[in-house]
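Form P-L/3: holo structure prediction, ligand MTE.
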Amino acid sequence: MVIRRPPDIPSSEITPEGVYVNRRKFIAAAAIGAAGAALAPRALRAFEDDVDQEVPARFRNMRSELDERLNSYRDVTTYNNFYEFGTDKDDPAKNSGDFNPRPWTVTVGGHCNRPGEYALEDILRPHTMEDRVYRLRCVEAWSMVIPWYGFPLADLIRRLEPTSNANFVMFRTVVRPQEMPGQRARVLDWPYIEGLRMDEAMHPLTLMATGVYGMDLPNQNGAPLRLIVPWKYGFKGIKSIDHIDFVEEMPDNTWKVSNSREYGFYANVNPNVDHPRWSQARERRLPSLFRNHETLMFNGYGEQVAHLYSGMDLTRWY
Ligand code: MTE
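OUTPUT (holo model):
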């Protein structure tokens, strides 16, 4: 996300250390061959192989349904957006050491038959966890392929028994300025808020994630519980959730409140609707330095989700 930062350094340009180190290797490899452009593909392959070794063994042969390979554990856990810990991509990994995700309670409220305070263990206990490889496409036009670990949000919602007045689900991130140094500044209105329409929330692709790479979520990725909606821009994936409310009206989500010209409620990945300051047609699949991938409508999940938006003007409802 890009907001309230020096205009000459868009955050999408900030490079994680791993990529930076590898970029030096890449530049060195490219320089060896004077033919430059002709050798670049080989150099790039070497560079990508390097990264592949950081994928834990159990996951090494895992691919997305489009046969994409996974991003490394290092990419996934060191290149993050989590403004509660700072606005730079490496801030969440650096500044989240004091955050304490256990014990944890989730407060459920609004239009449902089972409101209350739930210990995390009670939220999780009845559910069967599974690995799900999803593309994460950030609005800043970078992307990763990540093996999340979690369970369908729909299963939790059914247990909470929303009533017929529940049209949307609203999520809130915990507020703990002592443990979350980014919350001591008003970069955003805290708490971070996100929401889904009920049919989006009940879609089988929508995941409550508790882990990544089969392990508990590190703090920087949203421990202990976060949302993943793979056909939407990454900012819908709210982290460290401590409130779930069933509401009648469309919630005011944080980025829309912060800048409604640039961010909407729906946030469906859409190569045909540009962000006001850049194109969304292509994306930079980390660790690449280039926009080397075409962005797919609904992030490639169109067959499963396009029907949710039939009849809607997606240039208006972005
Ligand atoms: N959740 C909270 N609470 N605060 C944030 O700043 N950033 C969002 C989303 N969830 C954010 C958040 C954005 S912009 C993205 S792209 C994803 O988290 C990044 O998730 P990742 O760091 O696990 O890849």
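COMMENT: Residues 1, 80-84, 136, 138, 173, 192, 221-222, 234-235, 237-240 surround MTE (CB under 6 Å).
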